Amino acid sequence: MGCCYSSESETPEQDGDERKPLIPHPNPDSKPLNGTERNPANISSTRTDEQALLWIINKTAHTLSQKKPPSLPSLTSQPHQVLASDLVPYSDIQQVCKVAAYTYSAISQIKVDAKEELVVQFAIP
């Protein structure tokens, strides 16, 4: 990103530094040679990495299992009274159903008369 100044007087050493990665590979010999051979030193470092990851996972799992789950929000301080109260009157339910039917009827009668195309086709020249 950005511009890079270049001149013919650059030396090959400078060009070599430009190709070097900013963050070196942590374990460049971790790939098996010829697809089958492995270096024994790499195996022990892999085991150490696995042990470190297992330790982190176990610690995280233990920390999460020790936390108390948050309590659910309470809409009322006396839920037993709400549950024991009278049911919603049937007339109220009828009124809600009637309003819903009127709303559906009104929405279904809405019509859009387009004076021009609502979707315009674009052609690629």
UniProtKB/TrEMBL annotation:
<protein>
    <submittedName>
        <fullName>Ragulator complex protein LAMTOR1</fullName>
    </submittedName>
</protein>
<dbReference type="GO" id="GO:0071230">
    <property type="term" value="P:cellular response to amino acid stimulus"/>
</dbReference>
<dbReference type="GO" id="GO:0043410">
    <property type="term" value="P:positive regulation of MAPK cascade"/>
</dbReference>
<keyword id="KW-0519">Myristate</keyword>
<keyword id="KW-0449">Lipoprotein</keyword>
<dbReference type="GO" id="GO:0005085">
    <property type="term" value="F:guanyl-nucleotide exchange factor activity"/>
</dbReference>
<dbReference type="GO" id="GO:0001919">
    <property type="term" value="P:regulation of receptor recycling"/>
</dbReference>
<dbReference type="GO" id="GO:0005765">
    <property type="term" value="C:lysosomal membrane"/>
</dbReference>
<dbReference type="GO" id="GO:0071986">
    <property type="term" value="C:Ragulator complex"/>
</dbReference>
<dbReference type="GO" id="GO:0060090">
    <property type="term" value="F:molecular adaptor activity"/>
</dbReference>
<feature type="compositionally biased region" description="Polar residues">
    <location>
        <begin position="36"/>
        <end position="46"/>
    </location>
</feature>
<feature type="region of interest" description="Disordered">
    <location>
        <begin position="1"/>
        <end position="47"/>
    </location>
</feature>
